[in-house]
UniProtKB/TrEMBL annotation:
Name this protein carries in UniProt: AraC family transcriptional regulator
Any single Pfam family the record assigns to this protein: AraC_binding
SUPFAM superfamilies: Homeodomain-like, RmlC-like cupins
Domain HTH araC/xylS-type: 180-278
Family matches, as PANTHER family: ARAC-FAMILY TRANSCRIPTIONAL REGULATOR, TRANSCRIPTIONAL REGULATOR MTLR
CDD domains: cupin_MtlR-like_N
Gene3D superfamilies for this protein: Homeodomain-like, Jelly Rolls
InterPro entries named in the record: AraC-bd, Homeodomain-like_sf, HTH_AraC, RmlC-like_jellyroll, RmlC_Cupin_sf, Tscrpt_reg_AraC-type_HTH
Domain of life: Bacteria
Keywords from the named record: DNA-binding, Transcription, Transcription regulation
Length: 286
């Protein structure tokens, strides 16, 4: 039930790894590692799970995740080929004091902020092109290219934290395992009725203790997190199917249409029908 610890390797002649991940679909593989990870989605759509934040991703999605931050990218069932350019590196990949040098102060700040994950939804096309080209470079050129990308991201004013201020990587193994057991369970079961007593039992806690634990570890209530999962499922159904909104609500876990509309608007700022209409307009060829 806990996330898989991953130990990325490095290719010969370099101190970090950079590769193209291309699969028929990205499966839900909850994991974490000691490396920073820069991921650029180049093909496919799906759902990105970082810490306890759930969001859809599209081609052009660019994120920087700090060490030990659990995450996974899961493709939509009909999303087509999934492809991403992934770069993973440790803080000391250029030496233990490299990022402490005065000229790299902004990069050090970027890496510190990535502890909560950072998304660059409006990153310029030039930055995306530089990130996409990294696997094609060798030796010093790849290292310089990575530093160039990180520098550009460090001064990008559109960088947005992914996880909320209440979330940090778990301070001990027991807490991390409990959080991850709950998140994995809810990823599979959120479209069904969720009973706090049963979820608490998964991690051998009383409902009252679990409620305090969940809010302290994640920064939101269990209900808030389940609503986040359900609304992201609804977003997928709204954009990828022509199902009536009432059916979308039911398949997302809402038996009450008014409650669905209210929760959707709280999280997305628009009504479900407006969200669908906006995505249909965006999908039409110009």
């Amino acid at each position: 039930m806990k996330p898989h610890y991953q130990r990325p390797g490095t290719s010969e002649g370099t101190s970090f790894t950079c590769f193209i991940r291309r699969e028929g679909a990205f499966g839900f593989a909850w994991h974490y590692h000691r490396e920073y990870e820069l991921t650029l989605i180049t093909q496919g759509t799906g759902t990105r799970y970082v810490g306890t934040t759930v969001e859809r991703y599209y081609p052009g999605d660019l994120v920087l995740l700090g060490p030990d931050l659990p995450h996974t990218f899961a493709s939509e069932p009909q999303g087509g080929t999934a492809e991403a350019v992934v770069t993973q590196f440790r803080h000391d990949f250029l030496g233990p004091e490299f990022f402490a040098l005065p000229q790299f102060r902004t990069l050090q700040g970027l890496l510190a902020r990535s502890a909560r994950g950072l998304r660059f939804g409006s990153a310029p096309g030039e930055v995306q092109e530089l990130a996409a080209r990294l696997p094609q470079l060798d030796g010093a050129a790849r290292t310089v290219g990575l530093l160039d990308v990180l520098h550009r991201l460090s001064v990008d004013s559109t960088a947005t934290p992914i996880t909320g201020p209440g979330y940090t990587t778990a301070p001990n193994t027991t807490m991390r395992d409990r959080v991850d057991a709950v998140c994995r369970h809810l990823q599979q079961a959120h479209t069904e009725p969720v009973c706090q007593e049963k979820v608490a039992a998964l991690v051998h806690m009383s409902p009252t203790s679990f409620s305090r634990f969940f809010r302290r570890a994640i920064g939101c209530t269990l209900t808030d997190y389940v609503n986040q999962l359900r609304v992201e499922t609804a977003c997928s159904l709204l954009t990828d199917t022509s199902l009536p909104v009432t059916e979308v609500a039911a398949r997302s876990g809402y038996q009450n249409l008014s409650n669905f509309n209210r929760r959707f608007r709280e999280l997305k700022g628009v009504r479900p029908t407006e969200y669908r209409a906006a995505h249909l307009r965006a999908a039409k060829p110009s």
